Amino acid sequence: MGNVTSKKQQVIRVEGIAEEKNKAFANALSQVQNHVLKESKDVTLRIEPIAVNVVKAEEETYVERFLFVLFPRVRHNFRVTLDVTADITMIEMDAVHFIEKKRTNPVGFSLPFFKNKIKKEAN
Q1: How many of the other CB atoms lie within 10 Å of CB of 122?
Q2: Could you give the count of Cα atoms lying within 13 Å of 121 in the half-sphere of its Cβ?
Q3: Which InterPro entries does the protein's record reference (predicted)?
Q4: 48 forms bridges with which residues in the sheet?
Q5: How far apart are CA 101 and CA 72, in angstroms?
């Protein structure tokens, strides 16, 4: 068989939400692999990010209070939408030709528990 691997470039849009900026980016980037695997029926060998473009970055701020009036504190939520350009190396399953082998009906399958029980009853 020849070379069955192929390489393609794909732009993937992912979104991440967290309470810190770096965690929001990490959350978004961790979704790239799941998105690629869900989209393709081929076997993925490598996902290599080439470029990351920030489409939207938002910071949401709100005041949180204990018992609605005590101890006010400011909370932040960060939301990032990214376009990740990635090189994807994969094995094309359509290019792999499997050889079909047919077997006759097997003699049987072994069940260890019953096999020992049958031997004891035969003796």
Answers
A1: 6
A2: 6
A3: DUF4312
A4: 87
A5: 72
CB of 49 closer than 8 Å to CB of 86:
yes
Place of tokens 């070379």: 3
Kindly report the number of other CB atoms within 10 A of residue 4's CB atom. Answer: 15
Query: DSSP letters of 19-62?
Result: SSHHHHHHHHHTHHHHHHHHH-SSEEEEEEEEEEEEEEEEEEEE
Q: How far apart are alpha carbons 121 and 90 in whole angstroms?
A: 56
- Our CA angle for 27, 80, 90, nearest 5°, is 55
Where in the chain are the domains? 5-96
Kindly report the pTM of this predicted structure. 0.69
CB proximity list for 59: less than 8 A, separation 6 or greater: 76, 77, 78, 79
Q: How confident is the model at residue 86 (pLDDT cuts 50, 70, 90)?
A: very high
Is the per-residue pLDDT at 52 higher than 90?
A: yes
Structure tokens at 37: 């695997």
